[in-house]
Amino acid sequence: MSTEKEAAFYDRLREELNNTSLWPSEYLYKFIVPTSEEKIQQIESIFDNKGAVITTKQSSGGKFSSISINLKLKNPDEVIFFYKEVGKIEGVISL
Hints:
Alpha-Beta Plaits; alpha+beta
């Protein structure tokens, strides 16, 4: 995603989150990643010591894993911060 498109995406997300949620609020992240213990650990480490509830489930074929992370956050900027951190990991799809 180009920097301009990425900025526009996060601006829209921030606005939508402000309009639909009262903060602080619980937020559910969902990611799909090629099944790799290293990649899963990288994602989990981003949320370590934050009080996150993390659930991982492998696809029926075993090639991919879904990771759901439920976390109480202060504001939309925190939501976006974690999306950007996870986005640095190659091969991760954010849902």
